[in-house]
Amino acid sequence: xxxxWGNEIVTIHLKNVSxxxxxxxxxxxxxxxxxxxxxxxxxxxxLGPSGSGKSTLLNVIGGLDTISNGExxxxxxxxxxxxxxxxxxxxxxxVGFIFQSYxxxxxxxxxxxxEIGKELSSSPLQLDYVLEKVGMKDKADKFPHExxxxxxxRVAIARALVKNPTxxxxxxxxxxxxxETGKAVLELLQDIQQQEGTTVILITHNPGxxxxxxxxxxxxxxxxxxxxxxxxxxxxxxVKWV
Length: 242
Ligand SMILES: Nc1ncnc2c1ncn2[C@@H]1O[C@H](COP(=O)(O)OP(=O)(O)OP(=O)(O)O)[C@@H](O)[C@H]1O
What we know:
The chain is α/β, with parallel strands linked by helices.
C-alpha cells in the first residue's frame, strides 16, 4: 500500500534507519536513526556538510548498499532485507543513478554509452526519444572526449533516463560544472520530473539549488537535521548559484 503523507503519496519511507561501516573502535555511524518520508514525483534536495551521510542515504535508497538497522521501503516494497539478486532487480526496474563524475565509457560513442543503460532495463525508452530529450541527437556518434563537461553529464543523464526509471538519484550532478552548464542540467532534471513524473532526489553542496525542490532534507553527522517543504519551487534557471 502507498502511504499517505498530507495530500501526497509517500514513495520512500525510512524508519529508524542506521548504517554502520566498520567494526569496534573503527565503527562509523554514517546514518544514525534516520526516519523520513520522501514524496513521489517531486524533487527532493539533500544538503549537509561533507561526511554527514548524504551519499550513504542515497545509496541505501538506491539499493547500492544495505542498512544496518531500521526499515526502508521504496515503491511499496520493503527493501530492508532483500538479497543481492532481488536488490539488483530493484535497481534495474526502478532506479537511475547520476554522479558528479559522469562515468562514461571513453571507448564508446554517445549512442553506445546510452545503449548500456537500455540493456540494464526491462522496459527501456527509445534511444532517439532520450537523445532528443537531452539535446544530444546531433552528437550521437561523438566520443566522450569530444564533448564538454555539460554535454557529458547530459549523456550520463540520458543513460540513466533510457532505463525509464521511476526514481532518479543524483549525487552532486552539477558539482563539476560551471553555473551556466550546471543550470542547464538542472533544467533538464526539472523537465524530466515535471513531464515524466519521475521522483528525483538530488544531493548538492550548493544551497541555492534547494529553491527548486519541493522537499529539502538537511543531514548532520549522520542524522536528519531538518525536513522542509517548499510549496513554490522556482524554475531551475532562476536558481541562485552559490
Ligand atoms: N564504504 C565506507 N566505508 C567506511 N566508511 C564509509 C564508507 N562510506 C562512507 N563512509 C563514512 O560514512 C560517513 C558518511 O559518508 P557519506 O559519503 O555518506 O557523506 P556525504 O555527506 O555524502 O559526504 P560528501 O559530501 O563528502 O560526499 C563518512 O564519515 C564516511 O567517511
